[in-house]
Design goal:
Residues 366-472 form the Pyridine nucleotide-disulphide oxidoreductase dimerisation domain. This protein has 481 residues and is of the alpha/beta class. It is built from 16 helices and 21 strands. It has helices spanning 21-32, 47-52, 54-70, 86-96, 103-111, 163-166, 171-176, 191-202, 222-234, 325-344, 361-364, 383-388, 404-409, 442-450, 455-458, 471-480, and strands at residues 11-17, 37-41, 115-118, 120-125, 128-132, 138-149, 153-155, 183-187, 206-211, 238-241, 245-250, 257-261, 266-269, 271-274, 278-280, 312-314, 367-370, 375-380, 393-399, 416-422, 427-435. Strand 8, helix 8 and strand 9 (206-211) form a beta-alpha-beta unit. It starts with 10 loop residues before the first strand and ends with a helix. 46% of the residues are buried. The chain binds flavin-adenine dinucleotide (FAD) and nicotinamide-adenine-dinucleotide. Flavin-adenine dinucleotide binds at residues 17-23, 40-43, 47-49, 53-54, 57-58, 120-121, 150-153, 171, 175, 192, 281, 285, 316-317, 323-326, 328.
């Protein structure tokens, strides 16, 4: 790591605030272009994704989902009826998070030649950034070309009566807990809610989900939430929809939590998780010093440059375009290339849609896999979104169970697929798959959507027999009539 006193000048071509997956990738692209780069991090290099989000959650989900899959395989089912080895699952989660130590990622950042500053970064004016270390010491950095804000997001907990006293779980506690609570209430039916309900129910907790809307996973096609709810219920979870939490309290310091609902029901639990969305980490970032609103999401153009600025970039969760690691890393590749091109005046900027300096996929082809049992995966627009955007579309659905590959994958396979076809351009605007083992199918759909492959040409993309991918053939047959 850079010895701060050893830095001759606090001037860099690029200053990156926040070393999550996105900040790391902006730094990587900037360094690859030969730009000197400082990276400021106030917690762990690797960010939320590595320590309290993607990595621990997927490490926890994998055994739960693998067991559910195995229980549907003839000849194997009887061997996997028992409980999971909780200690081993948690130990594997700890391994995947490197025991919440960032040495490996520090080594990587150093290897690309970026200078690391530990502390809280704040804007103090145009291209000016201060770094406040844990001991209160302050450093000042100047960016010759660009400052990239990559500070991510944090969990939002609603301000309910009694909330502070119950010490609620957020995604951080839900992904790093050291033991399984006996009873867990999960508030929120979005992605974090369903994935964490799946984990803790699978590890032995009695889970109750409190969902204020009418369905789970409201941003996906309705059948995604329906199939995930059905499986969670079969696994023993209780799902309450159309209800809101009105107050919470905890008996004593470590006693049970009481949750009051607006339909009059009271729930008792050992822990309560609020999986109720995210807020940008911009409240203490000095945004006011550059004419921006503290605490706001940062609105950017397709090169990830903040509206109205020629030097400030906001990349990843903090720009609220798509709160996903892979999409933030895509933005980082685009923003890094744009920063380098603008700094060096060459090559010419390519900001037209799908150009080298335009994160066009953010609008057209954002893929997401929800790692529940069944998995739910989508890219692009849902039918409702496509219609609301004014496209003339047709949705084609197919029962995933009616494909030879799914019957072989699991006994009693349940799943569904939908493609949304733009009838004017004859390309796909969106695709959704829900079913066991479909996560790896999604990239085929992403290529079709991002590549704007005509349905007539997709007909020539032959899926191997007998894979679940043959659902493509069935969807296209239905479309062609
Ligand atoms: C439970 C959970 C599971 C998830 N699972 C997935 C998944 O499976 N796949 C997926 O694609 N996405 C997933 N996500 C979303 C994913 O975690 C985020 O999209 C991703 O972490 C965003 O990366 P980022 O670099 O923008 O921000 P972050 O990962 O939040 O990193 C931001 C970094 O900036 C630092 N920072 C903040 N403010 C300052 C400051 N002032 N000075 C210095 N440093 C600062 C923070 O400490 C942090 O290290 C999940 C999210 C959650 C909550
Ligand atoms: N596998 C993955 O790709 C993955 C996994 C986890 C998280 N993520 C990302 O992280 C982000 C955050 O996930 P999330 O689930 O926290 O947010 P979310 O926005 O997906 O879901 C939050 C849900 O909580 C509900 N809600 C909000 N306030 C509420 C309240 N006061 N009471 C009850 N319900 C309330 C919302 O209506 C919404 O349905 C998502 O955008 C997602 O893309 C991705």
């Amino acid at each position: 790591m850079t010895d701060l006193d050893g830095v001759k000048s606090g001037e860099y071509d690029v200053v990156v605030i926040g070393a999550g997956p996105v900040g790391e990738n902006v730094a990587d692209r900037a360094r690859a272009a030969g730009l000197s780069t400082a990276v400021i991090e106030s917690e762990l290099i690797g960010g939320e994704c590595s320590y309290w989000a993607c990595m621990p959650s997927k490490a926890l989900l994998r055994p739960v989902v693998a067991r559910a899959d195995a229980r549907r395989v003839a000849g194997l089912s009887d061997a996997v009826q028992g409980p999971l080895d909780v200690d081993a699952v948690l130990a594997h989660r700890d391994y995947e998070t490197s025991h919440w130590k960032d040495d490996g990622q520090v080594g990587w950042l150093e290897s690309i030649g970026a200078d690391i500053y530990r502390g809280k970064g704040r804007l103090t004016g145009v291209r000016q950034v201060s770094v406040t270390g844990a001991d209160g010491t302050e450093r000042h950095l100047t960016a010759r070309h660009a400052v990239a804000v990559c500070t991510g997001s944090r969990a939002v907990v609603p301000s309910l009566p009694g909330i502070a006293d119950v010490r609620p779980w957020t995604s951080r506690e839900a992904t790093s807990a050291k033991e399984v609570p006996g009873r867990l209430v999960v508030v929120g039916g979005g992605v974090v809610g369903v994935e964490m309900a799946t984990v803790w129910q699978g590890l032995g907790a009695e889970v109750t989900m409190v969902v204020r809307g009418g369905q789970l996973l409201p941003r996906m096609e309705p059948f995604a939430g329906e199939l995930v709810a059905e499986a969670l219920t079969e696994a023993g979870a209780r799902i309450l929809t159309g209800v809101s939490t009105t107050a919470v309290s905890r008996a004593g310091h470590d006693g049970p939590v009481t949750v009051e609902l607006d339909d009059g029901e009271r729930l008792e639990a050992d822990e309560i998780l609020f999986a109720t969305g995210r807020a940008p980490r911009t409240d203490d970032l000095g945004l006011d010093t550059v004419g921006l609103e503290p605490g706001s999401w940062l609105t950017v153009d397709d090169s990830c440059r903040v509206d109205g600025s020629d030097w400030l970039y906001a990349v990843g969760d903090v720009n609220h375009r798509a709160l996903l690691t892979h999409q933030g890393k895509y933005q980082a590749r685009i923003a890094g290339a744009a920063i380098a091109a603008r700094a060096q005046g060459t090559p010419p900027m390519e900001t037209d849609p799908w150009g080298a300096h335009a994160a066009t996929a953010d609008h057209a082809a954002v893929p997401q896999v929800v790692f529940t049992d069944p998995e739910a995966a989508s890219v692009g627009l849902t039918l409702a979104e496509a219609e609301a955007a004014g496209h003339r579309v047709r949705a084609v659905d197919h029962d995933l169970a009616a494909v030879a590959g799914s019957g072989l994958y699991a006994k009693g396979y349940k799943g569904r697929a939908r493609m949304v076809v733009d009838l004017d351009r004859r390309i796909l605007l969106g695709v959704t798959f829900v079913g066991p083992g479909i996560g790896e199918l999604l990239h085929s759909a992403t290529i079709a959507v991002a590549g704007e492959v005509p349905v007539e040409r997709l007909w020539h993309a032959v899926p191997a027999y007998p894979t679940i991918s043959e659902v493509w053939l069935r969807l296209l047959e239905s479309f062609r009539g």
